[in-house]
Amino acid sequence: MRETAVLLVALVAMGACEAPPKDIYATDRNLAAQQAAPPPAPEPPPEGNPRFQVLKPFFREYLKRPGEAIPNVFLNHLGDFTPLPDLEVSSEEDTSNEPKTPLEYYDVDSYRLVLIMSGTAQAKALLVDPQEKSYIVQVGTRVGNRQGKVVLITATELRIEEPGRPLVIKALESPLTDLEKELQAVQEY
Question: Does the global pTM surpass 0.70?
Answer without folding.
Answer: no
